[in-house]
Each structure stands twice: as structure tokens, then as C-alpha cells.
Amino acid sequence: MKASVPHIVQYQGSKRKLAPKILPFLPIRFGRLIEPFAGMAAMSIAVAKEHRSERFVINDLNEPLVGILREAVNNPEHIISAYTAIWNEQFDYESGSEAHYYHIRNCFNRGDKNPALMLYILARCVKGAVRYSANGQFNQSPDKRRNGTNPITLKKNIYGVSQILKGKSNFYSCDYREILEMARPGDIVYMDPPYQGVCTSRDSRYLSGINFKEFVDSLNRLNSRNIDYIISYDGFCGNKEYGEDLPEDLGLKKLYLDAGLSTQSLFNGKKLVTKESLYISHNLNKRREASQPVLPLF
Ligand SMILES: C[S@@+](CC[C@H](N)C(=O)[O-])C[C@H]1O[C@@H](n2cnc3c(N)ncnc32)[C@H](O)[C@@H]1O
Hints:
CATH architecture of the largest domain: 3-Layer(aba) Sandwich
Number of helices: 11
CATH topology of the largest domain: Rossmann fold
Strand content: 15-25%
Low-confidence stretches: 199-205
Order of helices and strands: HEHEHHHHHEHEHEEEHEH
Mean pLDDT: 90
Structural class: alpha/beta
Distance between the termini: 28 Å
Bound molecules: S-adenosylmethionine
Largest sheet: 8 strands, mixed
Number of strands: 8
């Protein structure tokens, strides 16, 4: 069994568990890994851990998330000590640990840019799910059963990630299309946009939707520039398929990866298997097929 991929903190939609199943579709070594929809950067971390690339472009439109990543990679001791202070504070907070979470969330919503605040909020909120109100305020509630990742565990996680990405990564917070313009032949772009199935809004305050046609146009542009890429894009749960297929004329190979049992369905007393679609760009797939040994037929 492959060793698990280190991570910083829980993040809903993270590809941490799926990353070992996506890695075999990437070349053994390549120029840079570009992650325009990085979230908590599970694929960059997985690729760095296997030394498949030495350069990483890590981007997410959600600036505070990128703030956590940048600080965790470049100044791990700083963010760990700030997080530890916040985490400890909850036990002495006069009105209790939940009230302390809301206090930290208010500081964040009032514009305090300390990345340790968002780190604590993510570690402590329900399902690590980032939710914003219509006026851009973070409004996810605390998980009442947990106190958030213990600082000792967090320290181990953050040092694990910093060790493999420090000095190799550039961090950005812009729209994915700007990041795609940076790609050159020889790079691999891994894209994990917000699910079509659950998101329709493209209001950047919700950070939850991208326009399908604009996305397809961006892929056509990557094709014309000879850039290789892989996309995780929806899939199905039980027999319900989510999201619109990417057009055939993009020339992509579509596969399904087994993503295990849906936690939501288990919660509802059902056991539904989730499959996630993976699209591989034409040239990348051709090279992958050519390098695979042809098995003898018996
Ligand atoms: C499914 S999550 C990615 C999860 C990531 N693969 C991981 O392992 O943590 C999609 C991410 O896209 C980001 N996002 C949404 N719209 C974006 C845009 N227009 N440009 C760049 N990032 C965007 C969201 O903030 C979110 O973190």
C-alpha cells in the first residue's frame, strides 16, 4: 500500500485520498506542476513527495487558502506557533470553545489577514467546508464534537509539507485563466475545478462555480499551445451522474476513478459508490499508452 500523502488540514473536496490514483497518469518526471484550482494542493504535495517535478505553481482564487499554503510552506514555525496560541485559547475562553470559534471567525471576517485564523477555522469548522454568505462573510459553523486539529499533529503535517515544497513553489491567488497563460510545453496542468453538480453560482465571493463554456475555451487554448493537462471533473454517485461531459472534440481520454463510498450516503443509511471522472489531454494519453507494456494475450 502506498504511504499516505501528507496534508496541512482538512479541506472539503481535497484530492488527498484520490491523489495516489491520479499519479500514475502523470509522466515519471516533468517540468512544472501547475495547479490552478489548488485548494489545499493535494496533487502538488503528492507529486513533490514522489519527486516527479521540482517546480510548482499553486493557485486558488480564495486568497486566505493560499495564505495558509504560502505560510505553511515558507514559514512553518511562524504559522504553527500562531495556530497553537489560538488553539490553546479556546480552553480558557470565558464563554467556551464554540464561542471562541465565532470570535476567531469574526476577526477573520473583519479582515484580519493572519493566515493562522483561517487555518484554525478550517481545522475546526464542519467538514472542513468553506462557505461564504452572499456578502462574502465566512459563515460555516464549528464542529461541536471536535476542537480542531491538535497542534502537535498539525506541526507534523505542516513540516511534512514544507519539507517537500519549500524553495520549489510559487503561490498565486487569481482566476485560473491567468494561471493557464503561464503554462509552457513540458509542464503538466492539473485542474480540479469546483463540481458542476453542486455549484452553479459563479460569483467569486462564493468561490464555487466556473462558467462551462469559458472552461472549454481555456482547454481548447491549452490544446492549441501543446500543453498537457489532467482534469478531475464531477462523476457519479450510485447511479446518478453529475455535471456535463467535456466536449469530445477536445480529444480527451475520459476515465473513472473509484472514490469509495459516499460519506453523505452513509450518513443517510445507504452505501453508494462514488466515481470521479478524470480527463487526460490527448498527447499526454498517447504518450502514456505508448509507454505501457503490452501484456501477452493467453
Ligand atoms: C474542488 S476544490 C480543489 C481541491 C483541491 N484539488 C485539493 O486537493 O484540495 C476547487 C477549488 O477551486 C477554487 N476556485 C473556484 N473558482 C476558481 C477560479 N475561477 N479560479 C481559481 N480557483 C478557483 C476554489 O476556491 C476551490 O478551492
